Amino acid sequence: MAGGTTLENTPTWTVAVVSFCFISISLGLERLIHLLTAWLKKLGKKALIEALEKLKSEMMLLGFISLLLAATQGPISKICISHKVAETMLPCRKITSITETQLADSSSPAEESAIPQPAIYDYCFSKGKVSLISQEGIGQLHIFIFVLAAMHVLYSVLAMALGNAKMRVWKIWEKETQTIEYQVRNDPNGFRYTRETSFGRRHVNSSTETPFLLWTKCFFRQFFSSLAKVDYMTLRHGFIATHFSPSGNVKFDFQKYIEQSLEEDFKVVVGISPPLWFIVVIFLLVNVRGMHIYLWISVLPLILILALGTKLEVIVAKMAIKLGTENAITRGTPFVHPNDELFWFGHPGFLLHFLHLTLFMNAYEIAFFLWITYEFGLRSCYHDKIELIILRIVLAVTVQVLCSYITLPLYALVTQMGSHYKKTALEEQTAKLLKAWHEDVRKKQRQKLPQDKPISPRNVGPSRSKAGQKTDQADAQAQVS
Predict the structure, then answer these.
(1) Domain spans of the chain?
(2) Which portions of the sequence form the region Disordered (predicted)?
(3) Residue 2 has what DSSP assignment?
């Protein structure tokens, strides 16, 4: 290979040491994934196991891309293009190297032979052209793809972990629904004006009379009071009353269902779908000098996550407004009806793709920043202004915090207000409900059993004797006749 020493002239001990290190790291990673899978199976986390399988498939795809880049870097670097084409859409100002200048100015073969020239460069230079992409450039691209995939997985895991940590308070709220105090406060026989309930006072007022005021209020609410206890309780009651019991008096762990539902969504978020890979190609294409495209890429995830958070708040507010419009008086807990029409395009699942895109773009921004810093340093042409570097980092951190602590909990709760529920997330709890119902039936049967007349051989014997006597008398009469 050009510009380096082949294995023919490399000490065998260096080859063995490097091979041992890579094989050990790969085997250790494979063992770690195996142990993680076994642990998740022990906990019964089927959705997370599927997410881990999805991650393994993504790693296999990443390995296949790496293999293709390594195997084809020689042939690709031999594809030659003209100088004019090579100087279009450059990300940085073109700097002519000393070697290139000397090659252009050299006139004698002796001078040319004295200059160290890579073989691939000679191949295209002899034709008066340049390489489509050098082997060094392919190696740098290889590193970028690896960093991007790693950052996306890390960002997704971090967002889900922080979101679940924020939602731990829901367990306390869920336990409260099983107390006597909660049942007294939400007596189904009690009547109240809908606007005077806690849910109505929170969402229905003069600031929601027009769509502009409604969206403005919801935009700022996501920063200060994104999710209140009354919202959780009301949406929980609406979900249970719609899908289980009209009275809503079912011992159903709504918080557990949300957790399992979020695990189902995680296996989608952790992967990089084909459209996202094409977005990577588009970002690499438009990274032209002077456009500052990566500053806009830093701002776009912030816009997306704020729009998503506002939309989720608007959905809850519209449920309250619709409830107040349809029923001036409510009985017990306010009953909100799950409805797909409140979501974009009438499909709650669209919000998941929206969230997935936001996380990926934010991970892309951080991955590109780390890759550029590693390959070219902080003083490269990609980092021409230190102010823009600081702004991009601040925006990336802000998006991650907003997504984890505000938008993700809102998404996990509000998306349950669609017309349908996730069957796989209900399997475990449905089995528990059926088991509890079966136990209640058995207890009732055992309570009724002592009240019945016991059956004993003494009671059975005489009855059988009388029956036998009647049978004998009937036979005798038949014979006489």
Answers:
(1) 7-89+122-133, 150-435
(2) 441-481
(3) T
